[in-house]
Amino acid sequence: MRRAAKNAQWGSHIPILCRVVDKTDGAILEMGTGAFSTAVLDVMCQRDHRQLVSLENDQAYYRMARKYRSDYHTVRFIERWDFASIEVPWGVALVDHRPLQRRRVDIERLATWADVIVAHDSQRYDTGFERFRYWFNYTRCSPPTMLMSNTVDVGAMFG
What we know:
Helix content is 31%, strand content 23%. It has 159 residues and is of the alpha/beta class. The protein has a seven-stranded mixed sheet, sandwiched between helices. The chain is globular, with a radius of gyration of 14 Å. The relative contact order is 0.17.
């Protein structure tokens, strides 16, 4: 039972991610695939035929995510995050990849490219979000999830 509770925490970002996807337009970037986010984003993007790009650097997760490939959903294996071509416009960018310390680097890379950045496990981001004009820390589920944007008032979106 303890393992099931821990695994459920891996999906603590899903409620806020779904709300953000529903309230935005444009392509979606998923950095780090998983049993929760990849399946949910795939269903939501299929519904609206919205472009989804999932990037993964772990072979096991990549093999799991490949089954979602379609005309609207691209799934790519990334050897090194430095080589990931993420500097293009995104409506939403989910940052939930490993290694954890790499997330801050990629949040910076996405700051001018993504309308809304959704960063799972935000208890580990004690700094960095203040460089954004708008931010909102979703703490209803644990671990928390940070929303960041320079163009969308994410606090008003959910306030």
